[in-house]
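Hi! If you just cloned this repository, the fastest way to understand the data is to look at a raw example. We've pasted two of them here, unedited. The first protein comes first, obviously.
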Amino acid sequence: PNHPPNQHINLSTTPLQFQIAIMSCGGVGDVKPADDDVRAVIKDLKESAQAKAQADGWNGTFSEWEPHSYATQVVAGTNFFVKVKVGGGKFAHVRVFRPLPHTNAGPELAGVQVDKAESDPIAHF
């Protein structure tokens, strides 16, 4: 059939096992409400996210910086895709990479998308 070589399809896989398999392969997980973990990840990145958006041609400022919801992707560390309330009823999507703990490195801004609505889905970018 039409699947890559060396990948086998197990028809008896439960939904949880299938979800774990996808996550272990670097897929983006389910969207969750903001929690203390994601607040800690993005708390110091407001200025750098705003500067990146402005450098990319956006002409605005973030008057707020409150995470709304997020999804994660396990790689050699964790990518966070965060919907952030930035003021005036507007949102931004922010991608942050948090390296593995043994690196002793903090989270780093990897991308920002502005002019998002609360209803815009969080997706890999």
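Ok, and the second one:
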Amino acid sequence: FADWLSGQRTAFRENVQRKQAQTGEEREEDDDENYPDSNSSDDDDEIPYNPKNLPLGWDGKPIPYWLYKLHGLNQSYTCEICGNFTYRGPKAFMRHFAESRHA
């Protein structure tokens, strides 16, 4: 077992030294050769599945439904002073009172 493990350790050590000697571009090329599907740009261009018309998060995907309900975004508030403008959620509705549109 020790002989087999020593062979693995030397191979691992050589691989680490080889990677440390590479530049950033060489590492990226090596990773692309070893893992071709990890950085596919086809997934970024697709429109995410959003049947409930949920707002998008920071990553461009719809936020979870439980978070949508937690923040009260399922409730719509209309302000007659602002020309019947609709606000999603109580936080957005309360915040709009400080805006110039409401004044």
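That's it. A detail worth noticing about the second one: The longest helix spans residues 2-21.
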